[in-house]
Amino acid sequence: MKLEIGKPAPQFESKDENGNIIKLSDFKGSKLVLYFYPKDDTPGCTAEACNLRDNYEMLLKKGYKILGISSDSEKAHKKFIEKYQLPFPLLADTEKTVHEQFGTWVEKSMYGKKYMGTARTTFIINENGILEEIIEKVDTKEHTAQILK
Length: 149
Hints:
By secondary structure, the protein is an alpha+beta fold. The protein has helices spanning 43-54, 56-61, 74-84, 97-102, 143-148, and strands at 13-16, 21-23, 31-36, 64-70, 90-92, 105-110, 113-118, 121-125, 131-135. It has a 7-stranded mixed sheet with strand order 2-1-5-4-3-8-9. A two-stranded antiparallel sheet has the order 6-7.
């Protein structure tokens, strides 16, 4: 299913790194940067998370809340957050339910081998739960600039 700008974002819920249930409805009234990434503590994912961390205060001032999501476990997320002092929650979508809702669990290919994995994609959701932007070509080192453009 391909999501469209201007349409409501899928209602989702998943556990964060501390086991708390986080839902889209928790962000009503705020703009949300929901970013899907493949794997904790890998070069591209670390660059992306650290870019968002380094610009976190500016994003907050502009009214954005940030939520990262991957298929890694709560434990892996906790280690990743602690290692890089990430100030925002990471959702553990181990069952890929939220990935399926957002169309980010896709067939990929590396060295001619096909496998399923996360399409690095960011969804900007407005205060009313409507998709405002979908960033499919994420620049991990300059992601904040892509969000604020």
